[in-house]
Design brief:
Elements lengths: L1 E3 L10 H17 L2 E9 L2 E8 L6
């Protein structure tokens, strides 16, 4: 799964933005359990490698 900003705009402008994104990921996992195999957060996009608990949950 990935998300990229339009025209290579920055979506993470400061260090706290990265920490906030990781916090939101953790909060989301409490509502929708999902295994995160890997992730990358870059200034203008992010990548997640997810493995759902059951088929059809992604």
């Amino acid at each position: 799964m990935l998300n990229r900003a339009n025209e290579q705009a920055r979506i993470f402008g400061k260090e706290a933005d990265y920490a906030d994104f990781e916090r939101v990921m953790q909060e989301t996992l409490t509502k929708k359990p999902m295994r995160i195999l890997g992730y990358a957060i870059l200034p203008n996009h992010w990548h997640l490698v997810l493995w759902p608990e059951r088929d059809g949950e992604l």
